[in-house]
Amino acid sequence: MWCEAVRWREHGELGARRFETAARASRTASLALSNRKEFTTPHNGAINSLQRRYLLSGASDGSAAIFDVQNATEYEAGFIAKHRSILLVDKQHENGHKFVVSMAVWYPVDTGLFVTASFDQYVKVWDTNSTQVVMDFKMPGKVYSAAMSPIATTHMLIATGSADVQVHLCDIASGAFTHTLSGHRDGIMSLEWSTSSEWILMSGGCDGAIRFWDIRRAGCFLVLDQSRSQLGRRPPFLEGTSDKIWCYGSFELFTTFIFFKDLLCTAEDRQELWDIDSGCNTLVNFEAMRLQTSKPLQLAVTEDPSLVFIPCMASIKAYNLWSGMTFQTFRGHYEPVNCCYCSAQEQELYTGSNDMQILVWSPSTPAGATFITTVQYFILQFHPKYHFDKDS
């Protein structure tokens, strides 16, 4: 079957992008709990946040840690790669947080700096090399979220969301608050910057509103309205790129949501797909799910993006973003899952939970029948004029 796909590619019947998408999709479809890689976490509390190639994690015991996902610290039994933290800041650190670390994010330009937000009402900027705080901001309430623009060239702002009803913008360059964004009627649980404009910011609050801001102007320019809906506009973007995807969670009405290009996905024990241009719900019928509503959840999407990974209590469900069908359910944690991170480079899924563990979900090796079946399924999606029997 895989030889057929290679032959199609050689003959030009299957484009390079679709061939790559099929290969990635087949590996994603074969994700399973890894039996050759594991993280030995130093955290003594729930894992709330996971980020990037050097995996940055934040936990409810007030600690933040960094792991190298490519280079193992040691090998157990000769083949199980164990990854221990290469950096840890916790309550014992002189500048450590006193309460829950709700969010830990990398400085977008390089890994020399990272930012942590905590329930102790502080947002701190850390120097990775010296493990010292180079700047901190005292907030008016518990800090639930923090975000930096991945494309900004004219500002170094950290957007922060807290129990206060305003979004506060902190400037690393000056060490001061620049301004606030007012409009929410309850705490701000989720924030994310646009990947197409350095001035556009999204926020989700306990008041159930999702607001879009242009930080150069007063007031938000778009609020999603549950009462507005439209059918259609569900294109399967096979050639989407990861730089147009971002994920984050809010609380109550919109427990979680994902934005891709001009489409937005929200959830409150159900998932919905929104058209950002019109602000309308596209009415994709997603299968039922059960979510935590006591804290923000971090979601993940594949690079395609065809699948969205959502923490559903102690399991993780992968949904087809365009059909709304449950593709796969991952079980391995013993307590509710709080965060997911999908690595495009490693083609692995990392999940953090209240059980204080970070689990690794890796693709199966390409020798098994399951792999062939999934390749056959995805190739048929992209090349439907061909038919294969089970022995193909």
Summarize the structure in short:
The chain is mainly beta and 392 residues long. The protein is built from three helices and 32 strands.
List the helices and strands and how they pair.
Blueprint lengths: L1 H10 L4 H14 L2 E2 L3 E4 L6 E5 L2 E6 L4 E5 L5 E3 L3 E5 L2 E3 L11 E6 L6 E6 L3 E6 L4 E7 L4 E6 L8 E6 L3 E6 L4 E7 L5 E6 L6 E6 L4 E5 L5 E4 L21 E5 L6 E5 L2 E5 L3 E5 L4 E2 L18 E2 L5 E6 L2 E6 L5 E6 L5 E7 L4 E6 L4 E5 L6 H14 L10
Parallel strand pairs: 2-7
Antiparallel strand pairs: 1-32, 3-4, 4-5, 5-8, 6-7, 9-10, 10-11, 11-12, 13-14, 14-15, 15-16, 17-18, 18-19, 19-20, 21-22, 22-23, 23-24, 24-25, 26-27, 27-28, 28-29, 30-31, 31-32
Pfam family, one: WD40
GO biological process, one term: protein polyubiquitination
Keywords: DNA damage, DNA repair, Repeat, WD repeat
CATH superfamily of the largest domain: YVTN repeat-like/Quinoprotein amine dehydrogenase
How many individual β-strands?
A: 32
For this structure, the CATH topology of the largest domain is Methylamine Dehydrogenase, Chain H
Q: What profile does the largest beta sheet have? A: 5 strands, antiparallel
Kindly provide the name of the CATH class of the largest domain: Mainly Beta
Structural class comes to: mainly beta
Global morphology: globular
Distance between the termini: 6 Å
Structural domain tally? 2
**Roughly what fraction of the amino acids lie in strands?**
35-45%
Overall pLDDT: 79
Helix percentage range:
under 10%
**Residue windows where pLDDT falls under 50 for at least 5 positions:** 232-256, 367-377, 379-392
Provide a count of the helices: 3
Oligomer: single chain
CATH architecture classification name of the largest domain: 7 Propeller
Please compute the radius of gyration using only Cα atoms.
21 Å
What is the spatial order of strands in the main beta sheet? 21-22-23-24-25
Keywords: DNA damage, DNA repair, Repeat, WD repeat
GO biological process, one term: protein polyubiquitination
InterPro entries: Rad28/ERCC8/Ckn1/ATCSA-1, WD40/YVTN_repeat-like_dom_sf, WD40_PAC1, WD40_repeat_CS, WD40_repeat_dom_sf, WD40_rpt
Protein name: Anaphase-promoting complex subunit 4 WD40 domain-containing protein
